[in-house]
What we know:
- By secondary structure, the chain is of the alpha+beta class.
- It has one domain (3-89).
- Helices cover 31% and strands 22% of the residues.
- It has a 4-stranded mixed sheet with strand order 1-4-3-2, covered by helices on one side.
- Strand 2 (68-71) and strand 3 form a beta hairpin.
Amino acid sequence: MGPYHLSQIETGKEPMNLEERLLDIQLYAVCIADGHFEDLIYFLTIGAVPQGYFVQQKKELVTQAVDFTMISSHFYKMDHDEILCRYVPEF
């Protein structure tokens, strides 16, 4: 039994906000967000490139950010096969 089964547990409550309306049943994959994604999460959350980035690094970050989004403080990526993947922090 993996995260796919856990994502289909129903609570019977009406959703109260955007995070609750985004049903976990719509998630088809859960991935680990390691330190590699810190700058991307910062960029999507703050809307600014981290200090010290060169022009080429800025361009690469913006290009990479196209496939990712933040929804209610959670980090998601739409994969090439149209599967929404939620990235969770590495413990």
